[in-house]
Design brief:
By secondary structure, the chain is mainly α. Helix content is 77%, strand content 0%. The chain has a domain of 49 residues.
Length: 111
């Protein structure tokens, strides 16, 4: 027979598992998998204690991304210099280093 503590325990574990699965954090840093796990566990605890704060942060990030998209679209439509991918030159230059690193990693994998 299931008691109150068993029911509460199973509900708590299910809730934690659902929140953990629903969280989509930014790209993890190179500090290692344990640091990423600890950071996500902190977010899970924060989400359980104050879900409205997590929602507020998500809405803020969405608005920032929306504004950035509008600004980039305006820059491109103004006819400013763009690279072959259509990014404005300053954005393209900041991406060059990343592209080079990824190409170097691909070359190491293929060799």
């Amino acid at each position: 027979m299931r008691g109150t503590s068993n029911i509460l325990w199973s509900c708590t574990v299910t809730l934690i598992a659902c929140v953990y699965t629903a969280l989509h954090l930014n790209v993890p840093s190179a500090r290692g998998p344990w640091a990423t796990l600890v950071k996500k566990a902190q977010w899970v605890a924060g989400s359980l204690l104050a879900p409205e704060l997590v929602l507020t942060m998500a809405v803020g990030q969405f608005r920032d991304a929306w504004e950035l998209r509008k600004r980039l679209s305006k820059i491109i439509s103004d006819g400013r210099e763009t690279d072959e991918a259509g990014y404005p030159e300053p954005v393209s230059m900041s991406l060059q280093g990343r592209r080079k690193r990824y190409r170097e990693q691909d070359d190491r994998v293929r060799v």
